[in-house]
Amino acid sequence: MNQYEIVSYIQENEEFLKNLFSIWTDQNKSEESKNDVVLFLRGYCSIAKGLQFAHRTPFYRSLNNSQLAIRIAATAVLSNVLEHDPSLVRSYTLAQIRQSQPNLIFQVIERLHDEPDAGVRSQYSEILRILIDGPKNDGVIEVISK
After folding, report:
1. What is the pTM of this model?
2. Which of 17, 106, 24, 95 is nearest to 61 (CA)?
3. Are residues 28 and 47 in the same domain?
4. Same structural domain, 82 and 109
5. Given this model, what pLDDT does residue 93 score?
6. In whole angstroms, what is the distance from residue 105 CA to residue 63 CA?
7. CA 71 → CA 20, 36, 67, 90, distances in Å?
8. Range of the domain at 30
9. Does 56 share its domain with 85?
10. Is residue 137 predicted with pLDDT exceeding 60?
């Protein structure tokens, strides 16, 4: 099977995509299962990136059919980055705040406020906790409170 056939098979298999993304809304699924979905999507996107433009468009449309799936995947990626190196994300966010740029913390708060899905809201809450609950000397709380 070549890359195009793999991508085509997956994007045309609505039942598979539905089951894949339902892992995120199933609170009985383990974090490992959810991480596996993120890793799968990352690999799937890597394969699709190598396709010709005409073949990539249907790929992105198949993912876009589920806006919830996109939000879930995005929060999962951010969660994974935070788990790997929270201080890196905090320092980047602090730089945004100090330069009076739109920053990650306030964007996550806005998403948390507007998100209709309880599972995604839970992920946003955990992201905020990790961002804010850093070492006391990193300055996030002081800068946010200003």
Report:
1. 0.53
2. 17
3. yes
4. yes
5. 86
6. 26
7. 14, 16, 6, 21
8. 1-65
9. no
10. no
